Structures are given as structure tokens and as C-alpha cells.
Amino acid sequence: MDYGISITLPDDFDAAMPKVIEALAEQGFGVLTEIDMAATLKKKLDVQIAPHVILGACNPPLAYRAVQVEESIGLLLPCNVVVRSGDGGTVVEALDPQVMVGVTGNEELTGVADEASTRLRAALQSLQAQ
Fold first, then answer.
1. How far is the C-alpha of 3 from the C-alpha of 102, rounded, in Å?
2. SS3 letters across 45-97
3. Residues 28-80: tens digit of each pLDDT
4. Which fold has domain 4-128?
5. Please, which residues have CB within 8 angstroms of residue 47's CB and are 6 or more apart in sequence?
6. Domain extents in the chain
7. How far apart are the first and last CA of the chain?
8. Does the pTM exceed 0.85?
């Protein structure tokens, strides 16, 4: 099952992070949380992985529209954007918002999913254009 939107940037992780946050902001997504997986796994399990951060991004108008249609949609909102070191650069991944329509079977979410998908894809495409 294809459930994500993904690009690879030529930038190293530290250079890519602020660019990703800026690209999301330009599309109306604020970053509410930042989970540093590498630091967490090092602290909790004493294992080392390449830089890997999960950004909890939110577009409030889209989130509001979705919750009006489906009260429990917060479980599926396409809020996680992963930024991680990959071969030859930095991988940026976002959950495809169409997943929330498929999982719930609620076609009333289609408009929200379409707009969220358009905005997330635009953010990622703008990163590739840099």
C-alpha cells in the first residue's frame, strides 16, 4: 500500500530541516511538535541511528474541517512529516492525506484530503525546486 509522499533532497539533514519547516509554513502548516527519534532511541535504548525527526505539522483550517466531518479523525490527520538522513541526502516524507478517506470510508473527507494533499505536495515540490 502506497501511503506516503516522499522526496529526497541533496542537502544534509541540518541544512534540510529549516527548509522543510519553511516550506510547510508557506502552505499553512505550523509545526506543533518535533520528535527527535535519533536522540530518543539513543537515550532509551542506547542505539544509534542517522538523524531522524518527526514533525507534527498542522493546518488548523483543514484540521477543523476534517473534525467537523469525522470526530475521531485526529487519529488519522496527515500531520506527521518525517525528515531523515538517507543515501545521498535527506528524505522528506508525509502521510498521503487520501489515506484518511480510505481508512474511514467517509467520502465527505475527500475535499479536505484533496486540499491537504495539494498543499503537502506543493511544499515538497518547492523544496525540490530550490
1. 10
2. HCCCCCCEEEEEEECHHHHHHHHHHCCCHHHCCCCEEEEEEECCEEEEEEECC
3. 999 999 999 999 999 999 999 999 999 999 999 999 999 999 999 998 886 89
4. TATA-Binding Protein (3.30.310)
5. 41
6. 4-128
7. 30
8. yes
